[in-house]
Amino acid sequence: RQCETCRPGYFNLLPDNDKGCQECICNITGTVNASTECDAVTGQCPCKTNVGGLRCDACLPGYYTNNFSSPDGCLFCGCEAAGTIPSQPDCDVETGECACKNNVIGKNCDVCKDMYFNLTASNVDGCEDCNCDASGSVNASCNVTNGQCYCKPNVTGRTCDQCSVDYYARDSSEFTEKGCLEVCDCDPNGVVDGDLDCADYGGQCRCKSNVKGRRCDACAPLFYGLNSTHQDGCLPC
């Protein structure tokens, strides 16, 4: 009766305002129950949980796209900290796209780019280069978790840079073209410490001092009696 209070939907009663109070102008997309009323003194509209601003017209940091149908107003960005640029932890307020480090992709920056692996927060680029051996691998991609490259037949190593045990390639050209297709077939009588593996290129087995041949299957000149019980493989003539 004394005209000392603003009507609902208005605030900030001032004597020099010819209308007495200002209109709230709440953004009903972001207000609770689509309310158009605000605090009679401050003008603050009643915002949904993830919405801010005097009029409830902006998403809080870490949220995006003020949505009328959402009970909380804005959606959670969900940016993966390990893959997001530290200085830009929040996503685009319209699209929800996070700001990814150089070697990271995905809306939430949670996936390594092709040819990269091991997403970690300490890596300024997010993920490591697969660094697959061009000769021994099928392609330049690797497992995104452990970095294992995809190797050619009988090739091993994380980067596919060596022949598997008991296999070899005749030369680097064969290694590049086909992998390691030849079997070492080392003679157990003539190799050092029973090691049946051989060199990746050429397939030379590790022969005892008095033994020769790619397979370590023959005595050197002036020696005889190849046998695993002989320390040097063969005995002097």
UniProtKB/TrEMBL annotation:
One record GO biological process: tissue development
Keyword Signal belongs to the record: yes
Localisation: Secreted
GO cellular component, one term: extracellular region
The keyword Glycosyltransferase is annotated on this UniProt entry: no
Listed Pfam families: EGF_laminin (PF00053)
Gene3D superfamilies: Laminin, Tie2 ligand-binding domain superfamily
Keywords: Disulfide bond, Glycoprotein, Laminin EGF-like domain, Repeat, Secreted, Signal
PANTHER family hit by this protein: LAMININ SUBUNIT ALPHA 5 (PTHR10574:SF406), NETRIN/LAMININ-RELATED (PTHR10574)
UniProt protein name: Laminin EGF-like domain-containing protein
